Amino acid sequence: SRSAAAIAVSNLRLQKPVPLMAEFSPYYLRTTELIVNKLSGKKITAEGLSVLYMSLAMAMHFFGYEFARSTALSIFTSDTIGFTSASSISLAMACVTPFSMFLLMIYSQQLENNGPRVALRNTSVLCSVSLLLSGLTVYAIEKSATLQLIQFKLPYYNKQTKLASLSLGKAVVWVLYLLQNSYAHLLCTQHWSFIGSVLTSAQGARWFVSIAGLTSLTSTIAAGIVSRLVNYTS
User: Fold this and answer.
1) By C-alpha distance, which of 175, 133, 171, 132 is closest to 154?
2) CB within 8 Å of 127: residues ≥ 6 apart
3) What are the pLDDT digits (tens) for 115-146?
4) Does residue 197 contact residue 204 with C-beta atoms inside 8 Å?
């Protein structure tokens, strides 16, 4: 009989992959396995390979998160489409917790209905698409004078933020900032949960620090790329 770790690994695989994935995935996985075996000098187990893939996925997640964090904060505090009041960030941070609860409700529903494999895939796709659409919407609003005229009247005048109405651009930026501050924990918790379910306590004590270091490294690299990218495009 297969071990619980092997079952967890198999549960994360797509049951009905699309033709492109069906052709690409086995080649990619086999190539990665050969490279790891060559570097380590010994054959890696299926459990070890699954932890490696999930660690790389989490590292890439934090690589992308660094782009989203820097961009969302810059847009939120910009003079053109963002919020200039210092109290706006405090208010937005206060809204992060209920927004995180909203994402957690979506995840719980996915987990209950589809299991952990599909829940991880769907929440990853949801967060990625939401960030992409938010960015494209902000770009479209900045380029369109018509969209900039759209206003949402607030129920009361906020003396601290000095806002009586909220433009479409500011509304999108607000949601983008909440999403950026909420989605990272939702996804990385699932990554760590899988890794922790595969590794034993002794293996976890050995590898958890290295895995965390890998995510920190990719975040640092992304931060350097962001600064260079801003200088290049400005």
Assistant:
1) 171
2) 179, 183, 186, 187
3) 888 899 899 999 889 888 988 888 888 888 77
4) no
Separation of alpha carbons 217 and 80, rounded Å: 33
**Mean pLDDT of all residues in 177-182:** 90
Burial grade of 52 (CB within 10 A; 0-12, 13-18, 19 or more): middle
Half-sphere exposure of 57 (CA within 13 A, CB side): 18
- 166-181: buried (b, 16+ CB within 10 Å) or exposed (e) per residue? bbbbbebbbebbbbbb
| pLDDT at position 198 over 70 | yes
CB atoms within 10 A of CB 31: 10
How open is the CA angle 53-56-62, to the nearest 5 degrees?
Answer: 145
Q: How far apart are CA 201 and CA 191, in angstroms?
A: 17
Apex 136 CA angle, 131 and 140, nearest 5: 150
Ranges 14-23, 33-42, 129-138: which has the least confidence? 14-23
Look-up of token digits 């009361």: 156
202: DSSP letter: H
